[in-house]
Amino acid sequence: MMAKISIVVPVYNEEGNVEKLHKEILDTCRENKYEFEIIFVDDGSTDGTGAICKKLYPLKYIRMRRNFGQTAAMDAGIKAAQYDYIVTMDGDGQNDPADIPALLAYLKENDYDVVSGWRKNRKDTVMKRFISRGANMLRYLFIHDGIHDSGCSLKIYKKECFDGINLYGEQHRFIPAILEIKGFRVGEMEVHHRPRESGTTKYNWKRTIKGFVDMISVWFWNKYASRPLHLLGGLGFIFLAAGFGCGIWSVVLFALGRKMSNNIFPPLLTIFFTVIGLLLFVFGLMSEILMKTYYGEHMDAPYNIKEKTENIVEPDK
Fold first, then answer.
1. Would you place residue 234 in the very low, low, confident or very high pLDDT band (cuts 50, 70, 90)?
2. Cα–Cα nearest to 94, from 115, 125, 72, 55
C-alpha cells in the first residue's frame, strides 16, 4: 500500500538551502513511490527565501506575518498537513531526506506513533554540541522520555498524534515527551547529520534559555497539570508546618518569661510562614479552577499566517 506522507519544513533566511533541500525531498518521495506533499513554512524570512519557494514545484508554501519562531512555524505546517504520516525536518539542509524511508519503516515495524531522529555523529561546532549535551542532561533529569537527541528536528509522526495539540515557545524539542505523556508510543533511531553548506545557524543563548523554561513547563504539565493543588498545596502544607513550629517556639519563649521585644523573629516567622502557606493553598485552588477552564475551552494559536500558496502545476521550463 502506498504510504501517504506530509513533509513539514520550517525555513527562515535559508535562500541558499531551500531549492536543494526541496529537490532532495522530492527525489526521495518519488523514488519510494509515496503519495506526498511538501510544506515549507517561511517564518518571516527577510532574504530571498520566499521568492525561491514560490518557484518550487510541487510545494505548499506558508508564510508567517513575522518571525514567530521555529515552534510556531512547525505548528502551522503540521496543522496544514493532510496525510497519514507527518515528517518534520530543519530547513538548513543538515537533516538528510534519504533517512525518511528508514524512519517510516522503523515506525511501522515497531508499531510506534513517533520516531525521533538521533544525530549521534553531529556535524556542528564544538560549542553547539556542548550546549546541546548540557541541555540533554537537564532534560534527562526533568523529562524521562528516553530520547537522546530532543533537538533533532527530523522526526516522523502518525497524524493523529497532533489532534487537539497546539505548540508554543520552544516546545518543538519536546514533542515526543508531550506525546508520551498523552500515551503515544515513542521510539528513536540514528540518522545522518550533515554540515551546513549555506547560511548561518539561528540558535543562540536566548533560545537555550527559552528551551529550558519550556522544559520546566513540560515537566510541570507531566506531573501536575491535572492536579496543581498537589504541588502548591504540598508546599503550602510545608510552610504551614514551619509556621506552626515557629508558633510553638514563640509560645514557649513567652511561657519562659522571655521579652518578646528581644525575640521578635519567632512571631515574625510564624506570621510569614503561615501567610505563605495559606497563599500557596489559595493559588493551588485557583490553579485547579484554571486547569478545568483550560481543558474546557479552545486555545488560540499564538501566531498569524500572512499567505498560503500551493504549486500544483509544474511551471514552464
1. confident
2. 125
Is it true that the peptide bond before 58 is cis, omega within 30 degrees of 0?
Answer: yes
pLDDT in tens, 163-201: 878 887 777 878 888 888 788 999 999 999 998 888 777
Q: What is the SS3 string spanning the chain? A: CCCEEEEEEEECCCCCCHHHHHHHHHHHHHHCCCEEEEEEEECCCCCCHHHHHCCCCCEEEEEECCCCCHHHHHHHHHHHCCCCEEEECCCCCCECHHHHHHHHHHHHHCCCCEEEEECCCCCCCHHHHHHHHHHHHHHHHHCCCCCCCCCCCCEEEEHHHHCCCCCCCCHHHHHHHHHHHCCCCEEEEECCECCCCCCCCCCCHHHHHHHHHHHHHHHHHHHHCCCHHHHHHHHHHHHHHHHHHHHHHHHHHHHCCCCHHHCCHHHHHHHHHHHHHHHHHHHHHHHHHHHHHHHHCCCCCCCCEEEEEEECCCCCC
Cβ–Cβ contacts within 10 Å for residue 164, how many? 8
Pairing of strands 114-118, 186-190: parallel
CB atoms within 10 A of CB 139: 23
Q: How far does Cα 161 stand from its chain's mean position?
A: 14
pTM here? 0.72
Strand order in the sheet with 85-88: 186-190, 114-118, 155-158, 85-88, 4-11, 35-42, 59-64, 305-311
Query: Strand 155-158 to strand 114-118: parallel, antiparallel, or no bridges (unpaired)?
Result: antiparallel
Report the alpha-carbon distance of residue 82 to residue 96 in Å, rounded. 22
| Exposure of 50 in the CB half-sphere (CA atoms within 13 A) | 15
The residue whose grid cell reads 527565501 is 49
For the chain, the straight-line distance linking the first and the last C-alpha, in angstroms and rounded, comes to 33
- Are 53 and 33 contacting, i.e. CB atoms less than 8 angstroms apart? no
Cβ atoms 180, 113 nearer than 8 A: no
